[in-house]
Amino acid sequence: MELNVYNKKGEDTGKKVVLNDSIYCIEPNDHVIYLDVKQYLANQRQGTHKSKQRSELSGSTRKLGRQKGGGGARRGDINSPVLVGGARVFGPVPRDYSFKLNKKVKQLARKSALTYKAKDGNIVVLDTIDFETPKTKDFVDMVKSLNVADKKLLIILPEQNKNVYLSARNIKNVEVVTVSELNTYSVLNASTLLVAEGAIDVIEKHFNA
User: What is the SS3 string spanning 131-181?
Assistant: First the structure.
């Protein structure tokens, strides 16, 4: 698959890049996409939720009523879950939600996500994505020139670029990542991928490593 290369003014430079079919033109696997996105979202969870168990509540341990004959549910001390203000039954406790996925599964998921974007024509390649100084106005002008200002964008760079990051961080629905930070969730969550030309080769090396 070939794509035209544009500059920051939205002009066609006349250059073309060839996208590797083994990355951008595979048979997408929806199940591995689901697994990778599920793992990504699970890893975002802090897992610090907590409610007090019966043994952690303060209160008298005196048995409030007789075991039988009261006409109601059995209850022990004032911390009993059947009483208002008592403990919570099977309440949440701190836990780790992360789980393991094989490297090849995650790689297939990312390739599947990139394939969907390529097939839908939602990948735009720029000859360079850089600014002399961090300036939000320059970034806004760039996306307006490319007619993607109203879309959710994922900017993919070959390496860290502080000026680009600072220029884009205050803009809604824009995320800036390097190739090494690329993940399935970010690719699918964006409506358009703005890829620096230099990142194309880095992506190929990263996925074929």
Answer: CCCCCHHHHHHHHHHCCCCCCCEEEEECCCCHHHHHHHCCCCCEEEEEHHH
